[in-house]
Amino acid sequence: MLLVLCVDLDDDLGRKTGFTTPVIGREPVEEAAVALATADPEDSDANVIFQGLHVYDEIDARGESVEVAAVTGNEEGEVSASREIGDEVDTVLASLSTGEDVTTVVVTDGAQDESVLPVIRARVPVDGVRRVVVRQAQNLESMYYTIKQVMADPETRGTILIPLGILLLIYPLALVGALLEYPGLVIGSVSTLLGLYLISRGLGLGEYVDGAAESLRRSLYAGRMTIIAYVVAIALLVLGSQSGIETIRTVGSDQNAVSLPVGAAAFLYGSIQWYGAAALTTSLGQLTDAYIGGRLEWRYLNAPFYVIAMAVVLFAVSGFFIGRTSVTALATALTGGTLLAILSTLTFAIVESRVVADASQRTMDVGE
Fold first, then answer.
1. 302-321 vs 327-367: helix axis angle to the nearest 10?
2. Residue 257 in contact with residue 251, Cβ under 8 Å?
3. What DSSP element (H or E) covers 245?
4. Per-residue pLDDT tens for 204-249?
5. Taking a C-beta distance cutoff of 8 angstroms, is the pair 233, 281 a contact?
6. Ramachandran bin of 72, using left for φ above 0, alpha for ψ from -120 to 50, beta for the remaining angles
7. What are the residue ranges spanned by the domains of the chain?
8. Which H/E stretch holds residue 107?
9. Alpha-carbon span 210 to 192, nearest angstrom
10. CA of 106: how far to CAs of 33, 120, 191, in Å?
11. Cα(4)–Cα(66) distance, rounded to whole angstroms?
């Protein structure tokens, strides 16, 4: 007797249809196949069961003794699923009321399900294995609609089309670069863009970039001063860096050789005014947004004074290292910066405490 055994390693049949396995017999197996195909038309295990029915009909038409059954495993791992299938095969063999020797043909949809073949061979001789391959997946029409469906997904479309588009732009941009006599610069820029894109996708930075873009858009429509402050601060940082480099060159021309500490001090001396202005602009923008949004607290007003104090101190210290600031000026700057920070801290702390006390008193008066 030949047993046609349809194998479903991860129990899609039981989970999606509620059928209790093993399913034995031509009509019960057909009902299970129809139920699985109805529940999930894309599940390949439905094709496995229908293939098993097809093999059954072929053998039965030749007048040979044949039976068909569907066995399933579970989702708890390959070992547990194999044991479950072994138990169900034992149940199927025990239900066959025949004195003939039983052999089997195993029907699967891939190599994963075929991993249980040793378990089945330990219980019944295996005459053959039939792997089901859906022919529609090889049709040009099916491929066209599959590609069309993939391209309809925004995430997949961006992942595939953007790198492909950048690669296709390399040749025409290289021609433009050759005309402008900068081919290396053009190709290098395109390669850099492609590399940055692939790195961002590989590290999963796409969501952060999209979130930053959305936050920027909301900030522009909300009229937040922080955006303008950041733009101005970036420009000031660039100017400050250029000023620091020029100061290093000037000090180098005066001293013929510049050590690393002196070079760092020269760079700081030339750029700290610009950097301080950038920090001051950013803090004022944030204070403006906090005031408009009703989130401003008195202690926040310390930020501009702290920035000024630190800029004064760093300017004097760096100038002292390169001989541009005297000891007296350095002492004055250190004392003045410290006093400015202390006075601002005390002033706004006292003001905030009094404002809070007055608010509490008015609340008590209203309550009485």
1. 170
2. no
3. helix 225-255
4. 666 676 676 677 666 665 557 778 888 899 999 999 999 988 888 8
5. yes
6. beta
7. 2-133, 148-215, 223-367
8. strand 103-108
9. 20
10. 16, 9, 52
11. 7
